[in-house]
Specification:
homodimer; alpha/beta; 434 Repressor (Amino-terminal Domain); Rossmann fold; 3 domains; six-stranded parallel β-sheet; 12 helices; 12 strands; DNA-binding
DNA sequence: TTGTAGGCGTTATCAG
DNA sequence: CTGATAACGCCTACAA
């Protein structure tokens, strides 16, 4: 428990300002809220007095009284690169609408629920949770706190209260497979991100997509890092039948595959085509002209803020779901299937 | 003016908790402040009731009443893995002392100053900035807001007001070089993280350390990622004289070096020794028993919180500097120099 | 246009 | 251990 506050000189309050300006406290409040009810002359006098005193509005008192703030809470997982990109986009989207963001991290030693709690205590007007494995356990009575889940894998039933925003990963994977089929590929492989919830859905979509074309599926365990991609590529090289196209778990993974194949003398895309999945905007990766399924983080972010603000302004009703389209960006790492 | 929410949907307050636990409000306050005056049994009952209700203390009311904030601000760079580890540690250190953390991210599209501004607006009682390239420009109104810089590269002159906490990187690098020299290595190489302020200091220390032993320095540009390490290793392999020991820019970089050397049939540590520099606790990397210079994030975090709280309690005076020792952890990737 | 009277949820004090 | 009571600084009726 922190000790008593230091014997600091008292901060000026509205009362002090009012006294100095020779008006009432209410008037000072009105002036600072920029609310109607104060004459031009009075307004000037109040602001002048406030400046003289170095008066600053007390946010604690303000939000205690009003019961609301202009801050959106964000719970993110500190380890996830994609969250970080999303964060950037959400900052921008919130800023555009006049909101501030308050961040709280879920770490290996700090649960999502704990992270959420901090934000509730700070009186944010809504919370967005990145990459929720499952809906966090909201405090029983804070059940009207607006909550948006990003990248949440459906299931939860139709009657959940939280809103969900996610990318159309399935559509993206299907587009990637279609692209490869169009190029004549029949022996494809897909790298699965073990340990990541996102991985499963992508692989499922891959299996369905190749099945639709009457082609065999081949799935290898991998991960979301460059090293994981490199390792998987080495395993592919060691096996007898090298596929003509590889769909990586995400972009870093694809970069790893690329690096390994290239340094083993395998031409990309001459001999093998490589497709990524937009999981990060890392500069080193963007430098490679990768064919990839791009997620639109800016749209994701805008939806998030919209849903949150919406609910904070009184919208009730069951959880809504926003599926943001992905799009296949064809780069230099895919080409016609080798002979 | 929105109508008063029904009692059922209002956030629970101390009163609600008190009612449910069958005690007085004062007692609830005592329990949550961890203040003396409540029996073990009562304490348990109160906490239980609070949990049932999903009660969370209202920070606004709290700080209004006590006249002090219990939140420390953190500005971090969302792209930096090490920041993320540090964040975890700082959460813990702050928690131990009864403080909450409020995060604000600096991203490619959002400056450090902007991040700081948000925190100042939220009335945190102090701010720690991770990896400050330069001291952030504090707004005029926050001239005496406690400020701690982590990993800041000195220079700023002796009269700066901010406190600084950093790892003894130089000592760590020297220890690593000493270790290699003890093992008989004379042809060493050091990978430099271009684009990262930390990189420069480490390379400088490396040059000084090998010079002290009368050995030549060899520096290659690289980076803080596995891929950067892998690329650098490939360049080393392509050159005529392979060094017998490589000091990587950080641990991920070392992992990349390791992967490339191993897959090229170069035995580690039989033919080449590899040393990392603790930049992250990524599990995939910890799995490798890497010789590395370990930074003590928990001590770093404790110092950060200590300095901040200190100043917030009235400590004045010029900026202090805390240098936290690093230590060489010898793993399985270093061994005697080859023939 | 101005003033007055609550009350937001918490902590602190003081009597039982 | 309880219960009552008074702030903390601000906002919002409502009355003047």
């Amino acid at each position: 428990m922190p000790p008593d506050p230091p014997a600091a000189e008292r901060r000026p309050t509205m009362k002090d300002v009012a006294a100095r300006a020779g008006v009432s406290r209410a008037l000072v409040s009105i002036v600072f809220r920029d609310a109607p009810g104060a004459g031009e002359e009075t307004r000037r006098r109040v602001l002048r007095a406030a400046a003289d005193l170095g008066y600053v509005r007390d946010q604690s008192a303000r939000s205690l009284r009003t019961g609301r703030s202009y801050q959106l809470g964000v719970v993110f997982e500190s380890r996830d690169d994609f969250h970080v990109d999303l964060l950037d986009a959400v900052y921008r989207a919130a800023d555009d609408r006049g909101y501030e963001l308050l961040l709280s991290a879920a770490t290996p030693r700090r649960t999502q629920d704990r992270a959420l709690e901090t934000l509730v205590g700070a009186r944010v007007l809504g919370v967005v949770v990145f990459g929720a494995r499952q809906a966090p356990t909201l405090p029983e009575t804070a059940r009207d706190l607006p909550l948006v889940l990003v990248g949440h894998q459906e299931d939860g039933g139709a009657d959940r209260r939280e809103d969900v925003v996610r990318s159309d990963e399935e559509g993206g994977v299907r587009a990637a497979v279609q692209h490869l089929v169009d190029l004549g590929h029949t022996r494809t492989a897909c790298l699965e991100a073990v340990d990541h919830r996102g991985g499963l859905a992508r692989v499922r979509a891959y299996r369905a997509a190749v099945a639709d074309h009457g082609l065999p599926a081949r799935v290898l365990p991998s991960g979301f890092t460059q090293l994981a991609g490199a390792t998987a590529a080495q395993r592919l090289l060691a096996e007898p039948d090298l596929p003509t196209a590889v769909i990586a778990a995400n972009d870093p993974c694809a970069a790893g595959v690329l690096a390994t194949l290239t340094s083993a003398g395998v031409d990309v895309p001459g001999r093998v085509s490589v497709v990524g999945f937009d999981g990060t905007r890392d500069d080193a990766i963007r430098a490679v002209d990768l064919t990839t399924v791009r997620q639109d983080v800016d749209v994701l972010a805008a939806e998030v803020v919209q849903l949150l603000v919406d609910r904070s302004e009184g919208h009730r009703g069951p959880g809504r779901e926003r599926v943001v389209p992905t799009r296949l960006v064809v780069g230099a790492t895919t080409g016609p299937a080798a002979g």
